[in-house]
Amino acid sequence: MFPYLPQEDAVSAPFWAATRERKLVIQYCSTCDQHQWYPRAICISCATENLTWREVSGKGTVDSWTTVHRAPTEGFVPPYVIARVLLSEKVIMLTRLVGIESPACDQAVELSWQELSDGRALPVFG
Fold it and tell me: Whole-model pTM above 0.85?
């Protein structure tokens, strides 16, 4: 189980609601035709508020990664792998890799879920 519950706010609420159904959604700007991650109130490409949520494939490749050997706070159990995953929608997501012994850049990964105690889930890749 994850050691703490991530905060939810008005901007991220649709993302967290989708995780209850094990759907990965990210923001999409209809003005400039760009996806973005993490959730924000405005588009990082054109600064409009024309953002909607779109379900994405859950497929990607490892862009970069590191193995954490020292827990940042109580409750985390090292070692674990944190990675930048380039989703097929051309958005980078910072996430955990699970079930991969020796990660490599450009390695194909797919979405999985880590359960949270309140019914939500964290997207992880393996």
Answer: yes
The tokens for 99 are: 């079930």
Give the phi and the psi of residue 19 in degrees, each rounded to 5.
-65, -25
Return the structure tokens found at 11.
């901007």
Pairing state between β 121-125 and 108-115: antiparallel
Q: How many angstroms separate the Cα of 48 from the Cα of each of 28, 42, 97?
A: 11, 6, 33
* Cα–Cα distance measured from residue 95 to residue 3, given in angstroms and rounded to the nearest whole number: 15
Three-state DSSP state, 15: helix
Domain ranges of the chain: 13-125
Write the DSSP symbol of residue 116.
Answer: -
pLDDT in tens, 1-36: 577 799 999 999 999 999 999 999 999 999 999 999
DSSP secondary structure string for all residues of 38-72:
S--SS-TTT----EEEEE---EEEEEEEEEE-S-S
